[in-house]
Design goal:
The chain is an alpha/beta fold. The N and C termini lie close together (11 Å).
């Protein structure tokens, strides 16, 4: 796969705008500000194809990025408290519409900030994917913010926190500063085709 061919394809902010899924999709889920857009940029080898912000809640649409014959899908984050209820409802409807339509989802990457325990929202998302038989990989973002002993400690704790959701899935620490971490995710994508 030639990631140099990647381009922003389209964004949808309302459920009725979502188009039919005609090629394999790899979606990125997680709390607001967990690093979904940064991770997509790293996989695609670009600095700013996906908009990145230090403020949570900036991805408010479902954003599609095309690479050869697949799409990477940046989903709005969940769990951000400083957003009006109407906006939270719209995001929820958009997420439900994305997952509720017939989509060719080959893998969902569930991002969790490695520095913190998995949230109730994270567990709910994993439960949804397990129940709907959507293959998923857990990606622990911001691993570069921890030292080696903290990293080892969080890796041992996360499996207990995730419980049944850690069974039969990969759990991958990810740092935006390490190219090899992006390469691991590219390999997962290519093996899922």
């Amino acid at each position: 796969m030639n990631y140099n061919n990647a381009f922003f394809e389209k964004a949808f902010g309302r459920p009725e705008q979502l188009e039919v899924s005609d090629i394999p999709e790899f979606c990125f889920c997680g709390r607001s500000n967990v690093g979904k857009s940064t991770l997509i940029n790293k996989i695609l080898g670009r600095k700013s194809i996906a908009r990145v912000s230090s403020k949570p809640g900036k991805t408010v649409t479902v954003n599609f990025y095309r690479v050869d014959n697949i799409r990477l899908v940046d989903l709005p984050g969940y769990g951000y408290a400083k957003v009006p209820f109407s906006e939270k409802d719209r995001w929820s409807e958009l997420m439900e519409a994305y997952f509720g339509t017939e989509r060719n989802i080959r893998m969902a990457f569930q991002l969790i900030d490695m520095r913190h325990p998995a949230s109730e929202f994270d567990l709910t998302m994993l439960e949804f994917m397990l129940h709907n038989q959507i293959p998923y990989t857990v990606v622990l973002t911001k691993s570069d913010k921890l030292n080696k002993s903290e990293t080892a400690n969080r890796l041992s704790l996360i499996k207990a926190e995730l419980g049944v959701f850690a069974n039969n899935t990969q759990i991958i620490p990810f740092s935006a500063n390490k190219n090899k971490d992006a390469e691991i995710l590219r390999e997962i994508i290519e093996k899922s085709l």
